[in-house]
Amino acid sequence: MTSHDSTFLVRKLDSIFSISEGEETALRKLPVQVAEIRGRQDIVGAGERPSRCFFIKDGIACSYKITGTGDREILNFHVPGDMPDLQSLHLDVLDFSICTITPCVIGFIQHDALNRLCERHPRITSAFWRETLIDASVFRGWIVNARREAYSAMAHLLCELVVRLRAVGLADASSCELRITQSELSDALGISTVHANRVLQELRAAGLIALKERTLSVLDWKGLTSAGDFDPTYLHLRDGSPAR
Amino acid sequence: MTSHDSTFLVRKLDSIFSISEGEETALRKLPVQVAEIRGRQDIVGAGERPSRCFFIKDGIACSYKITGTGDREILNFHVPGDMPDLQSLHLDVLDFSICTITPCVIGFIQHDALNRLCERHPRITSAFWRETLIDASVFRGWIVNARREAYSAMAHLLCELVVRLRAVGLADASSCELRITQSELSDALGISTVHANRVLQELRAAGLIALKERTLSVLDWKGLTSAGDFDPTYLHLRDGSPAR
DNA sequence: CGTACGCTTGACTCGTGTCAAAGCCAGTGG
DNA sequence: CCACTGGCTTTGACACGAGTCAAGCGTACG
After folding, report:
1. Which residues does residue A66 pair with via DSSP β-bridges, in sequence order?
2. For position B244, what pLDDT does the model report?
């Protein structure tokens, strides 16, 4: 089903710079193909040459690679508003895969529509470019995080998730719905699920978080950021305000 | 000293797409400020708000972050032709630092000159954007590499360095000058220098590499790529041809 | 009501860090 | 020309974080 529902995109870009009337009109004219996708389902796979990009309207997704040993390495989580494969606009072959974690609502946009949009609206080009640069910055954050020990790395990851969910209005001051399994968290940190479990228990025992019934509550934000050595600069958020 | 020596940029972009006459003229008009910088010297630091970008004309540099525990985490190495902080064109505050490893020759270009260039030449915008997307892809490669065990990760890193140096003509079929210390390699892999040393010896003992007098020789390319689970797709090279 | 998936726990193994010391090499200055 | 110095590499002994294997438990859903 094709519609023109790019309200999400408009809102997203409007949070980056103030959109002109002409730009908003052009954005709303974009043909968007909306699809609902079950949980744990590939959206695009490594090696493909996509002819379209997509943005997440609802749900949580992740980028991942499979190594030679068959392990899944999660490279990033994606929250509503993200455009995880925007890079395919200029890199023809995808070097990683993207799959849903929870059931998702996805909006697809053809490359040529985006390219035409960019040709006519340089400020939109800049905004999209900026999006991909922030992705790169998050990857840098994850490289560093991969070298922390597991307790600290887990704290850092949880901080990032809360801040990013808050940025799109999906977390309140201290808690959010987190439908990510321990096995997925462990794939994101490069540790075993057994160890992920132990580390989460340590974080609970330290009184930093509570995690039950798919809800993460941060009981001690200061303590959690300090345990995770978390500095939100790398997320390049607009207002720079992390969760409290 | 300001000159117009952007031959390097022209060559680089020409390897990505065929440059028109108008584009080449515009590139050659770019004011470039050339500087020689000693080894182990910061070029730009985290937290700065650069008003210019730079490209490396000669030498090896690296991007890094300092963690809360004071460790230096190297995020990427940079070879001649690279523009390590191109992102500062759209992200105002730098979230990492860039320093030289060997003595370097650097060409600085003001942001406003680059912005004017991009406004007039959309294809050059795309080429620059593409550069930053490849950086992001390399970061993804490093996230995965951080999860390999040290022996494999070191093999992977050496493969990447050889391939990237070959791509700019700084390595022949099987060997290259590698003026990177074991301590720098260990910071790039997130392991101790002691362990980096042991792992290099294992690679030598396995007959995969020779490393002496600042020269890396790959004795068994197939064996090295297999040890490192190396697939050059993520480097998004033009001809796709890795070292043999 | 059963079955599957996710979470939890314990015991043992192994990769890697840390500490400490020694060797090596190149550049510097007497 | 040679001794001195500092940075880089190498080696050994020991400690610890994290993986693996294996089993049990809880709970959501068909």
Report:
1. A72
2. 40
Tokens representing A86? 């925007």
Taking all residues of chain B, what is their mean pLDDT, rounded to a whole number?
93
Do A144 and B73 count as a contact with CB atoms less than 8 A apart?
yes
Nearest-10 Cα torsion for A143, A133, A180, A221: 80
Contacts of B205 (CB under 8 A, 6+ apart): none
Nucleotide nearest to A180 (CA to C1'): C6
Q: Which amino acid is at B206?
A: A
Query: Touching check for B48 and chain A: CB below 8 Å?
Result: no
Model confidence band, residue A15 (pLDDT cutoffs 50, 70, 90): confident
Flag if A146 and B146 touch (Cβ within 8 Å). Answer: yes
Alpha-carbon distance of B93 to A104, in angstroms, equals: 33
pTM beyond 0.90: the answer is yes
Tokens in use for B39? 């080894």
Buried b (16+ CB within 10 A) or exposed e, A142-181: bbbbbbbebbbbbbbbbbbbbbbbbbbebbeebbbebebe
Residue B35, strand partner residues: B106
As beta bridge partners, residue A97 has A64
- Nearest protein residue, CA measured to C1' of C25: B213
Q: What are the C-alpha distances in Å from B179 to residues A11, A16, A78, B172?
A: 49, 42, 39, 16
Q: How confident is the model at residue A12 (pLDDT cuts 50, 70, 90)?
A: confident
